[in-house]
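During the second half of the funding period, the structural biology subgroup turned its attention to how the target accommodates small molecules. The most pressing case was calcium ion, which had performed well in the primary screen but for which no bound structure existed. We therefore specified the complex as follows and requested a full 3D prediction, including the ligand pose.
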Amino acid sequence: MRSSSLLSLGVAALATVSLASTAGCVRRARTVVTTEQVRQDVPAQTVQAPQVQVQVQAGVSTVGVQCVQGSAEQCNGLDDNCNGAIDEGCGWQSGAIQITLAWQTGADIDLYVTDPSGFTISYQDRQSPTGGVLDHDARGACVPGSDTIENVYWNTPQPPSGQYMIELHYWGDCGVAGVTPAQVSISVGGRVVGTYNVTLSPGQRLPVAMLPI
Ligand SMILES: [Ca+2]
Ligand SMILES: [Ca+2]
Ligand SMILES: [Ca+2]
């Protein structure tokens, strides 16, 4: 059994501020997004986690994802069984924070998470001194046979407080992929706080969301 509730993520307006990318000094501007309410299914017995107000960037849509308690967990970048862990049993880890990227084409897309210390976790630097780890990379340089999920997590009891910036980079279309929708799910404190969709073109690097902890 589960209950359903309407949670306001209270997406805040972002001022237009330049953001320095850690890879190649690319500067991007955050633009204004509007406050919206997001429907989420919350398991009836979920321990109450602190409310997290995720700030999403322009062009990013929030997805109301239905999870079903007791269902089989699929390796799809979603928490299918409502236990707060995304893709447990698939070979990548969860923890106090888990950020999971998934896409469905043959593109090579890369997940970047910059923690409050300013360290950026990616396939280039997989482990932050604050305890964050990229433990699953996918399609690196279009390697054949790879799945299309990337995962960053903190399994420390108290990850550092502050802002966590989530970015995606469409590294390459591997000859066939073209424009590709990508999905990012975020779990904090044993609860999924949101799932977000954004469409990327080859070569694009986009900020997706700011996660305050
Ligand atoms: Ca799960
Ligand atoms: Ca899953
Ligand atoms: Ca990749």
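Two results from this model are relevant to the next phase. The first strand starts at residue 2 and ends at 8. Residues 1-48 have pLDDT under 50 and may be disordered.
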